[in-house]
Each structure stands twice: as C-alpha cells, then as structure tokens.
Design goal:
The chain has 260 residues and is an alpha+beta fold. It has helices at residues 2-8, 34-47, 61-69, 88-100, 113-122, 141-149, 153-156, 163-171, 190-200, 215-225, 243-252, 254-259; strands spanning 16-21, 24-30, 74-78, 105-108, 130-133, 136-139, 176-180, 207-210, 232-235, 238-241. It has a four-stranded mixed β-sheet. Strands 8-7-9-10 form a four-stranded mixed β-sheet. Strand 3, helix 4 and strand 4 (105-108) form a beta-alpha-beta unit.
Length: 260
C-alpha cells in the first residue's frame, strides 16, 4: 500500500509532506524543507480562512478520548512534555520511563481542558499523570512505581528496541527474508524486480520488507550486514547477498539448496 501510494503521488524522498484541504490534495513539499512547509501552511490557512466551522465534523468527547487513549500501545497523559514536565509527578514518571526505556506516546493535558476534565470521568481516575495500555487504564504514578518495584513494569509495558534488535527481529521473522525496494507485485527498482523474478522460479515462500517505507531500517541494515546496497537476501537469519550473488548462485544451481 505504501509503495502504491508513493508511486501514485510521485513520492521519491523521505520526508514528503502532502497538504489536503477537504480531501483534495493542494500542495506537496518534498524533503526536509522547513521554510517551505511553513510558507505552505500559512498560504493554505489564508486560502481556507473562509471555510465555515460547520464544514468541519464535530467529534464527540468520548470518541476523542477513546482515540487518544489508543493512539499508541502505551499512552501517558501528563502535564507538559517528557522534555519539559510541568509537575513533580509527571517528572517522576518520565524519569521512571527513561530509566526502564518504556516506549510511549504522550498527551499534554494542560493543552486541552476538555480532555483534562473528561478523561477523569472516562477513566474513572481523578488525578494525573495517567498511563494507558492498549486502550485500558493502567493507573497513575504510585501504581507504576509499585509495578517497577515488583518487576512487572518492563514485562507489562512496551520497551524500546535498539535498532540492531529490531533489524535482527525483522531478519528472523521468516526463513527467507528479502529486503527490497517496493513489493514483489510492485518492485520499485530493476534490481529488486530481477531478484523477485529469480525467486519466483523456485516456488518458495518468502517475506519481504520495503526499505523505502522505513529509512531507519534502510540505512541501519547497511551497517548491520556490512552490505551497502539493495536488495539483500537472508536465509535462516544469515545474509546470502545481493542480486549479483543471487544471480550467480541461480546460474550455478547452488541457490536451490540454499533456499530449501
């Protein structure tokens, strides 16, 4: 889906910002061009200033709270931000999360009084901070501290993965793993297309990862595998190589045994 969307909208760099007004694409800004993004936003705000509020859907508060509590696996409702907490309880929670490397998103309740007051009723919890997991309330600071002391915190809440751990997990997510540009049905470069064509001759199941969808993986895997180009083929967690090696093994007959 990402490859098809990128091709349809002519996206060939990350990041690329698409600006829509009432579901209509108005502007596209490729690359990290902050001044142009800001200028585009100002322009569209000026052009759309005549839109009546009635044109915009009104979201029910409970619907909004449900969306916010499920916007990530773990969500912390805090005062301020992780970098600039605005109460001692939020600061203590952020220090705890930093120490245990908990992965979370956050919402600053001081930025929205409707959310601040509504979440107390929605979650039946009168104080902040609040931590939610998979849309369910875990509790406040005291409960999180207790979970930490009992060793339950890092087994209950998601923990950040190092890039190498993430790469290892992706590589080992299938016996045969191909890192390519695009997908087998829509390869985004000639080398990926040729590799997919070769693998198709062996009638084997394999999994792919589109490196164009994740620049961190794209750059990190080059270092992890000590292999600077794509595609990259892995079997049983071991790097086989790129297209030249795959083609050479295919022509020599060695690839069949490797893929078994």
């Amino acid at each position: 889906r990402v490859a098809k969307f990128s091709e349809t909208h002519g996206i060939d760099s990350v990041p690329t910002c698409l600006f829509y007004v009432k579901k209509e694409l108005k502007e596209t800004v490729a690359g990290l061009n902050v001044p142009r993004v800001a200028k585009t936003i100002d322009k569209l705000i000026t052009e759309c200033g005549s839109l009546a509020p009635a044109d915009l859907p009104v979201e029910d508060l409970n619907t909004r709270l449900k969306r916010l509590t499920t916007m990530a696996k773990c969500v912390a409702f805090i005062k301020g931000s992780p970098q600039a907490p605005r109460c001692k309880f939020t600061r203590a929670l952020m220090e705890l999360f930093s120490t245990t490397e908990i992965e979370f998103s956050y919402f600053d309740i001081l930025s929205d009084n409707d959310v601040r007051e509504g979440l107390k009723t929605f979650g039946e919890w009168p104080t902040y901070p609040q931590v939610w997991l998979d849309g369910e309330l875990v509790g406040g600071l005291d409960i999180l501290k207790e979970m930490h002391e009992n060793g339950e915190l890092v087994t209950t809440l998601p923990v950040k993965q190092s890039l190498n751990t993430r790469l290892k997990n992706i590589i080992n997510s299938h016996k045969i793993m191909l890192f390519m540009k695009g997908s087998p049905s829509e390869p985004r470069c000639g080398f990926s297309k040729t590799t997919v064509g070769i693998l198709a001759e062996y009638n084997v199941e394999y999994k792919t990862f589109d490196i164009l969808s994740d620049n961190e993986v794209r750059q990190g895997l080059k270092v992890y595998s000590d292999w600077p180009t794509y595609p990259q083929l892995y079997v049983d967690g071991e790097l086989i190589g790129g297209l030249d090696i795959i083609r050479e093994m295919h022509e020599s007959g060695d690839l069949s045994d490797t893929l078994k």
